[in-house]
Structure formats: C-alpha cells, structure tokens
Amino acid sequence: MAIASVRDSDGVAPILAKSLAGERLSRDDGLRLLASGDLLALGAAAHTLKQRHSADRVFFNVNCHLNLTNICAARCGLCAFSRDARDADAYCMDQQEAVERVRAAGESVTEIHMVSGLHPDKPFTYYLDMVRCLRREFPRLHIKAFTAAEIQYFADISGGSIEDVLGRLKEAGLGSLPGGGAEVLSDRVRERICPRKATAGQWLAVMRAAHALGLKSNATLLFGHIETPEEIIDHLLSLRSLQDETGGFQAFIPLPFHPENTALAGTCSRPGAVDILRMISLSRLMLDSIEHVKAYWVMTGLPAAQLALVFGADDIDGTVREEKITHAAGAATATGLDRRALIALIRRSGSRPVERDSLYRMLRCC
Ligand code: SF4
Fold first, then answer.
1. CA 297 distance to own-chain centroid
2. How far apart are CA 82 and CA 146, in angstroms?
3. Does the beta carbon of 79 sit less than 6 angstroms from any atom of ligand 1?
4. Strand 57-61 versus strand 315-318 pairing type
5. How many domains does the chain have?
6. Is the CB of 115 under 6 A from ligand 1?
7. Which helix or strand (DSSP H or E) is residue 35 part of?
8. Helices (H), 138-180
9. Could you tell me if residue 3 is inside a domain?
10. Residue 14 placed within a domain
11. Atom 2 (ligand 1) nearest CA
C-alpha cells in the first residue's frame, strides 16, 4: 500500500514518509504515531522497512525455556509466576533436574533460554554453577540467560560489580542475554509495578556493560498496564540511544501485558490485536538501529503474531517447549510449538521461514 494513498486524517503521512526516506523519527513523531488511528498506514510503512532489513525472511529458532525457580524476593505486582518459598507450588531446580529438562527437549534444540525468580536464599554461585553445568552437559547449545534485573540482583547479593558478575557468567558459558526485566524504563512505573527490582538506570547500565563485554542481548517493553504514551516513547528512545552507543541489541520485543493472576488484575485489560500491531509497527519505525523486531507468539497469541509479520516484525521467536511465566498469567496459547507448526505459520503469512541461531546466523531456509 502506498503511504501517499492512505487517508491522512491524523497527519501521520509526512512522518511515515520521513521514516521511509531514512530520517530518524523524533519524540513528537513517535507520540503522533502512537495516537494515530491509521493502523494500516503505520503497518504498511513498517512492513516496507522490514522488507529492506530482512526481505521476505522471517526468523525463528528451536529453543527450550528453562525457569530454574519461581521463588522470588521481588514479588512484583506485574508477575503471576513468582511464589514465596512456603507456597505449595514453589519450586527450585537442582542441576540434575535442569539437565533432564533440557535433554527432554530433544536433539534439534539450539538454544537454552533461561530466566528465573530472584531466589532469596540461593547465592550467586547457584546460578553460576548451573551455567557451568549446562555448558558441560550441552556444549553445542547456546545459553541465553538472565534478565538485566537478575544480573543486578546477582551483583547485589554477591557484592561484586556488574562487570564482575557478567564476566564470570561469560567465562562459565553464558552466550547472550534475553531482554526481559525492562518492563517500562520509567522509575514512576517501576515504583508501582516492580519496586524491588532493578531501576531503569540499572537495567540500562547492565545492558551497556554486557555489550561492552561482547555479550549481545535483546530488549523488551511490557505495555498495556499503567504506562503513559510518553513513557512508551521515552522507553524506545532510551533503547535507541544505547543502541547508538553499543550496537549490542539484536532484537526488540514488545510484550502485551497479561494481568490475570497478578496484583494488577481488574485494573487493566489485556491489549488486543490492534494494540499489539500498532506497537510492533511503531517499534520498527522508531528503532531504526535495531535490526530485528520480534512478535513473541506466546504473549501476542498466534493470530496476532502471524499478522505482525506484515506489520514490521521479522522474527517470531522459537519453539519454546515449556513456557511457564506468561501461562501463570492466563496465556491461552500452547506452552510450546513444534518446528513444523512455526514454519507453516510463517509461510502462510507470505514470508520465507529461516531457522536462525541465537546470534541471528542463518542455519537453514525452510
Ligand atoms: S517479574 Fe521477575 S523479579 Fe518480578 S516477581 Fe516475577 S520473577 Fe520475580
């Protein structure tokens, strides 16, 4: 769809034209795009940019999720996953259990995606030794683990610096960081929804340090709760600015908030498909220096994830296998998908499925 042909009742056509001409969008541009009712215009422009980056390719990987423990000292208002140690369904894996879970995921897996609660009693060495053990048992697999909030917590409990914690984890076998724990990079929001974990400044500082050590990462945004439009745009600008400095973000992943079973239940409703597609498109338009935009199917749902592939996203995450965190908050998606189902979903969007590794190297076209 040509942007010029789109009805421009809310004045976004010049902003989209600017983006397509390779000009960087401003804060004010972002706010106007976010307020626009012209979703199709945003989507068409974002899809054009996606095609320039990745052509008709859409990336996925074959991964397995591993959540070592749901016992967490932070007990964030946004979280349905965490438990206190005395709760009947609290758990904490030992190395043997973790190894068995990864082994059960099968031979085709290329990545372990591991995030967990901030256990109040386990020392940093519990996590460090776990990485060492997984590296030893699965030398072929990439270990993508620990949100920036977890890294900050490890520094707090170990008394070491962020650089020291990251350096030791890298030496033990850590390959990259996922992008979670960013929520919204606003201390006003964090004070309300996650007051006991890393501040916005700490989250960014961990990512800066990781990138300096050669550890790539992703970045997320959790939207659809108490955040304002200004806070969303400022979040994107903070990430864009850090990316200009380090180049370490591989993908951006906007995550629709699931309020069920959280302390915020009843105060907001889950974002719908239009909200999700607007955020995917906006991300592609604003984050001109982050190569990949991911539609995380577990949280968007499969229909919205598939649509996102023509609204600016070029990645749909992976097979996942055993998702716990979003399902604790009422996600209706499967807890995992097999490789064939992901490939079929991508193909039916008119895109070419490409299996990638954790660092976006192409493994095979499907
Ligand atoms: S979001 Fe993370 S840090 Fe917060 S309570 Fe849940 S597991 Fe803990």
1. 11
2. 15
3. yes
4. parallel
5. 1
6. no
7. helix 27-35
8. 148-158, 162-172
9. no
10. no
11. 117
Q: Which letter, b or e, does each residue of 10-47 get, where b requires 16 or more Cβ atoms within 10 Å of its Cβ?
A: eebbebbebbbeeeebeeebbebbbebebeebbbbbbb
117 Cβ inside 6 Å of ligand 1? yes
Q: Whose CA is nearest to atom 5 of ligand 1?
A: 75
Tell me how far apart the alpha carbons of residues 182 and 324 are, in angstroms, rounded to a whole number.
19
Classify residue 6: in a domain, yes or no.
no
The number of angstroms, rounded, from the C-alpha of 62 to the middle of its chain's C-alpha atoms is 16
Q: Does residue 277 sit within a domain?
A: yes
Specify the residue for token string 């030992």.
94
**How many C-beta atoms lie closer than 10 Å to residue 7's C-beta?**
10
For residue 73, what are its two tokens?
A: 């000292």
Is 238 within 8 Å of 179 (Cβ atoms)?
Answer: no
Give the predicted TM-score (pTM) of the model: 0.95
Beta-carbon contacts of residue 283 (< 8 Å; ≥ 6 apart): 221, 236, 252, 254, 293, 312
Per the CB < 8 A criterion, the answer to whether 318 and 110 are in contact is: no
Range of the domain at 257: 48-365
CATH label of the domain that carries residue 259? 3.20.20.70
Nearest residue (by CA) to ligand 1, atom 3, is 74
6 vs 136: CA distance, rounded Å: 56
pLDDT in tens, the chain (366 residues): 334 444 566 789 999 999 999 999 999 999 999 999 999 999 999 999 999 999 999 999 999 999 999 999 999 999 999 999 999 999 999 999 999 999 999 989 999 999 999 999 999 999 999 999 999 999 999 999 999 999 999 999 999 999 999 999 999 999 999 999 999 999 999 999 999 999 999 999 999 999 999 999 999 999 999 999 999 999 999 999 999 999 999 999 999 999 999 999 999 999 999 999 999 999 999 999 999 999 999 999 999 999 999 999 999 999 988 888 888 888 888 888 889 999 999 999 999 999 999 999 999 988
